[in-house]
Design goal:
This protein is α+β, with helices and mostly antiparallel strands and 361 residues long. 34% of the residues lie in helices and 21% in strands. The strands form three sheets. The protein has an eight-stranded mixed beta sheet. A four-stranded antiparallel beta sheet has the order 9-10-11-12. It has a four-stranded parallel beta sheet with strand order 14-13-15-16, sandwiched between helices. It binds zinc ion (ZN).
Length: 361
């Protein structure tokens, strides 16, 4: 959270969508508990998902907020100095916020990440991961644990390899020539690595296999990792991007899913690589989809977050002049995302998506 003041003295809190507490879409607005005054008994924050602007309706708070991922231009405008001449000062988080007051340096870093300007170590991290791609792919092929993990998710090894997935083993890191490189990649150790694409650049997302044993499904593993001190399930580079083919190769009718494993599951079921893009999250790519994509089938997760994101993304995509179809995963106990459904029920459990897809043609 960053506080900025405009020249007119208007105070604006710039938030990341990850700072919203339990967001829910109601009547075309995203409602969330307010992290600015710290309420968790009423969704007093009301945000327009298309513009990213919102307000807290708590009488004592009345904060003006901007969600930076939903309106990167406005966030850039407010945080950038000079271009608008409007910004006069930035402050750390206010006293009553659950977020501690930021130091000047932390504010600078926070500002840089809001503008998505990668720091030097982030560029070096991406460069190293890119150079290691062939080694990581060979390691995945050779790893009994890696193959068993994919098998548990019902993903054939060849499908994962054809999408560039690899495994960063501790041995690969130990063989790096420089201590600085080894330290930089330490947080990626023992992870399945998925290459991501942003416009003109590459990013990565890594899923830890820490503590995973054959026979554990993703829910058991998630539970194991949720305990304090365990590695984060997923980490990303900055910039990250989407798990997909290069932009110019995408089909004009696209399926958008949340997770990288959802995309692998759909490709395992016979969809073509150019037809499916995984967001690796629930935000649209900051650079936008290519203009030749005319129709988007939103097929996000079946949980509350997926439903909120479906409404938000469909509003954003329609605003861009694209046709949108939404396929919500039914709450039928057959899996909350496409990978889980594919694992539990094979093609039959993908029927809602297959049906929506057939209706596009
Ligand atoms: Zn508030």
């Amino acid at each position: 959270m960053i506080t900025v003041f405009t020249r007119q003295g208007k105070r604006i809190e710039i938030l990341s969508q990850s700072e919203l507490w339990h967001p829910r879409l109601t009547g075309g607005r995203v409602r969330a508990f307010c992290p600015i005054h710290g309420s968790d008994h009423q969704r007093s924050l009301s945000i327009d998902p298309v513009s990213g602007w919102g307000r807290c309706f708590n009488a004592a708070c009345q904060a003006n907020v901007l969600i930076r991922e939903w309106n990167p231009q406005a966030a850039y405008h407010l945080l950038g100095t000079g271009s608008s001449g409007e910004l006069v000062s930035q402050e750390g988080a206010p006293e009553r916020s659950p977020v501690p007051r930021l130091s000047a340096l932390a504010r600078q870093k926070e500002g840089a990440s809001a503008l998505n300007v990668p720091s030097r170590w982030q560029q070096e991290e991406r460069r190293l991961l890119e150079a290691l791609e062939p080694t990581m792919q060979a390691a995945l092929q050779a790893s009994a644990q890696g193959r068993a993990y994919l098998g548990e998710r019902a993903i054939p090894l060849e499908i994962a390899l054809s999408c560039g997935v690899g495994l960063l083993t501790p041995a690969i890191i130990a063989h790096l020539p420089r201590g600085k490189q080894r330290r930089l990649l330490q947080r990626w150790s023992g992870r399945l690595i998925f290459p991501l694409r942003a416009e003109g650049t590459k990013g990565y997302i890594g899923r830890t296999l820490w503590g995973w044993r054959p026979g554990m499904d993703e829910n058991d593993h998630k539970q194991l990792l949720e305990r304090l001190g365990r590695p984060q399930r997923w980490i990303k580079t900055n910039p990250a991007g989407s798990f997909s083919l290069p932009w110019d190769q995408l089909a004009s009718k696209l399926i958008l899913v949340e997770g990288t494993f959802d995309r692998l599951a759909l490709l395992s079921a016979g969809f073509l690589p150019e037809e499916v893009v995984a967001l690796a999250g629930t935000a649209l790519p900051t650079t936008g989809l290519p203009p030749h994509v005319r129709h988007v089938l939103l097929a996000l997760d079946g949980d509350e977050g997926g439903r909120e994101a479906t409404a938000r993304l469909s509003a954003q995509l329609r605003e861009q002049g694209r046709a949108v179809t939404c396929c919500l995963i039914p709450r039928d106990g057959r899996g909350k995302d496409w990978n889980e459904r594919w694992r539990l029920g094979a093609r039959a459990a993908l029927e809602p998506l297959l049906d929506s897809y057939r209706r596009l043609y």
